[in-house]
């Protein structure tokens, strides 16, 4: 089941499925962060390509008031052609 589908700042359609989101929620700080994950994809402060896996993109968005102080939301996405699939997200 798809939790959400958004168009990223790069123009890719990014999909987050229920299994990947359940995995993210194993980290207690990710509870209640779904909107911030979407925001990191649609309005990131920075986007980087992985040095190790060229098909991976890392979307960063600074949040001054996260559940664990000022942190970046990092959302990792695997892209192919014009589509992308959520891989993981972190607050750091």
Give me a quick take on this structure:
The protein contains 2 helices and 6 strands; from the N terminus they run ββααββββ.
Your description of this structure?
The chain has 92 residues and is of the alpha+beta class. The chain has one domain: YaeB-like fold (2-Layer Sandwich), CATH 3.30.2310. It contains two helices and six strands. The protein has helices spanning 18-24, 34-42, and strands spanning 2-7, 13-17, 46-49, 56-66, 69-80, 83-91. The chain has a six-stranded mixed beta sheet. The radius of gyration is 12 Å and the shape is globular. The N and C termini lie far apart (28 Å).
Work out the strand percent: over 45%
Q: Tally the helices: what do you get? A: 2
Provide the low-confidence segments as ranges: none
Shape descriptor: globular
CATH architecture, by name, is 2-Layer Sandwich
Largest sheet composition: 6 strands, mixed
Structural class: alpha+beta
As for the CATH topology, it is YaeB-like fold
How many DSSP-defined strands? 6
What is the radius of gyration computed over CA atoms, rounded to a whole number of angstroms? 12 Å
- For the largest sheet, list the strands in their spatial order: 1-2-6-5-4-3
Mean pLDDT: 87
Order of helices and strands: EEHHEEEE
Helix content: 10-25%
Secondary structure elements and their pairing?
Layout (H helix, E strand, L loop, with lengths): L1 E6 L5 E5 H7 L9 H9 L3 E4 L6 E11 L2 E12 L2 E9 L1
Parallel strand pairs: 2-6
Antiparallel strand pairs: 1-2, 3-4, 4-5, 5-6
